[in-house]
Amino acid sequence: MKRTNPGNGVSVRKKRRFTQDDLQLFFLSLPSTIWYLLFCYLPMFGLIIAFKKYKVAPGKGFLWSLFNNSPWSGLDNFRFLFANNRETTINMFRNTIGYNVIFIILGIVLPVTLAIMINHLRSEKLAKVTQTAMFLPHFLSWVVVGYFVFAFLSTDNGLVNRIIMSFGGSPVKWYQGEASGYWPWFLVFLHMWKTVGYSMVVYLASIKGIDESLYEAAMIDGASKWQQTRYITLPMLKTIMIIMFIMAVGKIFNSDFGLFYRTTRNSSSLTSVYLTLDVYVFNSMFNNPRPVYGYISAAGFLQSVLGCLTMVVANTIVRKVDRDSALF
Questions:
Q1: Is 146 in contact with 262 (CB distance < 8 Å)?
Q2: Any alpha helices (H) in 18-141, and if so which ranges?
Q3: CA gap 269, 275 in Å, rounded
Q4: Which residues of the chain are modeled with pLDDT < 70?
Q5: Considering the entire predicted model, what is its pTM?
């Protein structure tokens, strides 16, 4: 920090002292810092497994097994992602990227729309009840959701088939190949049902932070609710929408394992619908006679690198269009 000496006009550097406020802030940030070091940065050391044929030595520790019992494998662990036939590999990456593109688009449109609608509710009590009802699915495990889905779609006693039969129709085998065309819709619906409430809260909080005087001035000028939303709410939400978009793009090569594995019950007849990169790696753990620690680490490393690259590209494009809205 610099200050100017009034006597001779010479700039003098003033030393920054460590105050009691700094000490309080240090202790407040210490738990988060320790958490990130232990669970985010320290595990990065395990990436070395992606380049080794890791073998566990009985009676030895992790480090001894890694450096003395595991030879280097180069990029062999990465090749297993493409070891299957060309159709399976294309289907795996197509599902992973395709579903995420849909999730990203709907993950912005639906939460923003719902946040605006709830913000316009006149009854504050109704708004809170609606917000809570939409947020609750976020806390449900995919294991629980999977059992609920099975209760609806079970071939024998499922609720959906009972309704179909009550109207004289034939039961549908939802977990067989004949119903594979319905599952992309089911998966998209379940993902949005479970996640839209959480994202909506983020946008709703941003709307609450908009200066009320802007809406008051618009109403004086005779602006309708739609015009207030179009010319005030949406422009004010633009920055947070772009930030959420960039962060979502960074996970485009990841998939929600619980959604694709649990709700479909890993049915072999539906493989073409739910096979994503994470599901493929999980199934490889049981279908491969060799230890798959290196495969798992290689897949995670590849997802992180590709996700980082796509995030940087998306942020670069945003910076060229609107520099102030870029994440970094």
A1: yes
A2: 20-36, 62-68, 76-79, 86-119, 124-135
A3: 11
A4: 1-16, 18, 288-291
A5: 0.83
